[in-house]
Amino acid sequence: MAMSRPLRVLLVSSSGGVLLDLLALRPWWRRHSTAWVAVRAADTVVALADQRVVWQSEPAGPRAVWGTVRALRPDVIVSAGRGLALRYFLAGRLLGVRTVWLETLPQTTDVRGSARLCARLAHTVLVQRPSRLSAYSGAVLVGELY
User: What is the pLDDT of residues 119-141, one digit of tens each?
Assistant: First the structure.
């Protein structure tokens, strides 16, 4: 089925590995209308210099999250994170927005509470290793990103 228009994609990121994983998905998200919610840090400022970014602290307050999601009206919210992503996934679910969570490689051995919740709230879970397909019902293998 062909898409009639590019998706409005909201990428939610902290700094470090989460940012690297989302940047590695660039071949997919660059075909769409993207906006980022990110925690201001040296690497996020540099890496997202040419992107539309809403800077937020971690954890972001509920009003900030709700206002951002309602203002940007994304078709899908994508994150590999935990803390900041959790509130966005909750808001997205309440507003009927599709959510995609990418399991980072460090999370394959240490899935913490908020990561577990993000995975449960996600409509789609992306994994990087075949051995992780059985960890999440309906998970999609994307392979190692870098």
Answer: 999 999 999 999 999 989 999 99
**Mean model confidence pLDDT for the chain:** 91
pTM of the prediction?
0.91
Domains parsed from the chain with CATH numbers: 8-141 (3.40.50.2000)
- Backbone torsions φ then ψ of 5, nearest 5 degrees: -155, 160
CA–CA distance, 14 with 1 (Å, rounded to integer): 33
